[in-house]
Amino acid sequence: MSDVLIVGTGHGGAQAAIALRQHGFAGSITMAGAEPDLPYERPPLSKDYLAGDRERERLLIRPAGFWHERAIGLRLGNAGAAVDPAARKVTLENGDTLPFGSMVWAAGGTPRRLPRPGQDLARVHSIRSLADVDRLRSELAATRRVAIIGGGYIGLEAAAVLAKLGKSVTVLEALDRVLARVTAEPISRFYEREHRAHGVEVRTGVTVDRITEKDGAAAGVRLADGEVLAADMVIVAIGIEPAVAPLLAAGAAGGNGVEVDDYCRTSLPGIFAVGDCAAHENRFAGGARVRIESVQNAHDQATTAAKAIAGAPEPYAAIPWFWSNQYDLRLQTVGLALGHDELVVRGDPKARSFSVLYLRQGRVVALDCVNAVRDYVQGRRLILDKMTIAPASLADMSRQLKELPA
To answer: Taken in order 367, 286, 301, 291, is the CA torsion positive or negative?
Structure first.
């Protein structure tokens, strides 16, 4: 039996194991994950790794010997399929059972499937794992036209890489603007213009009817109005589904993710959940229960769970942050814009360096900063200090944010 079993070997799972040892936990630790690879970084998959600019070995969160040196066992290549909270054991997909004293569920999520015919054809891809991107890269030499279904971060990052590789890329977004679920219209329109300027065709407000087929492989995308867009490759990038079915089946509270408290404890005794699959009440969202799909959240929640297990409990209170690289643009987000009631655009988007500040009841609650590192760094203080500042002052580029209010 492992004193602590960690299900999931992504950022959350790896950090949970690392933090347990850092905080003096001397018991046995086992990490079990669905993928056959050692724990690795996911953000580069849709960026540097897809572009061929980063080698596989440079994705590793820690060198191979790190886990052995710290007596952290690895069971790779099998996902957790069932949880028995009373017997304190997890059954893997291959039928093996792993008993535990405490468990950290860090299984992340799986790519959301397109609810239309054609999802399972050859040359239809998602971008979630190393294996996903390896398959995609192996087909690039024979690919001229790519259709990307979904205008979120993953879809746009992939579009930027593929356009730079000389592919003809079309992005298809069902909503009326890209990034509509995660950012404000000024950011969305800016990125639409940037992608079009780089040769990407961006179509918004379109509904996909099916992925068309030729000889068992994707040949294009047919839209609801009957138009068919030819494509040698289709990438489906419409989000993830949190991998929590075994926990919910075992009786854990949840739905869109599994519910956790301030210490990342689920409603099942001895079982914690972190990262993409954990729905928690976040003070930066006005106390709303949210799932945050970011490396920062996975890392910080994993540390919170590890501290609780190691006997040094400390509630999760980290400010959320996120980044996205597209072309020569770096978008940095801090805070959560949920429930904002006012926007301030700081700077000129035409200059390709600007920020959007989100206010709720007069207070700054989040920033999106495009090539504006100084605003990003200084804006954190405005959020943490719950600053109420006049919108005109926030928009005044003659003053740095750190000088406000004054």
So the answer is: negative
Region 251-260 average pLDDT: 96
- Model confidence over 4-23: pLDDT tens digits? 999 999 999 999 999 999 99
- pLDDT (tens digit, 9 = 90+) per residue, 59-96? 999 999 999 999 999 999 999 999 999 999 999 999 99
CA angle 278, 280, 286 (to 5 degrees): 145
> The tokens of 169 are what?
């890329």
How far is Cα 400 from Cα 310, in angstroms, rounded to an integer?
A: 42
Which residue in 69, 44, 66, 68 sits closest to 56, CA to CA? Answer: 44
Judge contact between 79 and 93, C-beta under 8 A.
Answer: yes
Cβ 38 vs Cβ 64: under 8 Å:
yes
329-335/321-326 β-pairing: antiparallel
pLDDT digits (tens, 9 = 90+) for 108-145: 999 999 999 999 999 999 999 999 999 999 999 999 99
Whether 379 contacts 401, CB under 8 Å: yes
CA–CA distance, 110 with 126 (Å, rounded to integer): 10
Instruction: Give Cα separations from 287 to 262, 280, 281 (angstroms).
Output: 11, 9, 5
- The reported pLDDT for the residue numbered 227 is 97
Q: Which two tokens stand for residue 277?
A: 């699959």
Alpha-carbon gap, residue 245 to 80, rounded angstroms: 10
- Cβ atoms of 299 and 15 closer than 8 Å: yes
The DSSP code for 153 is: H
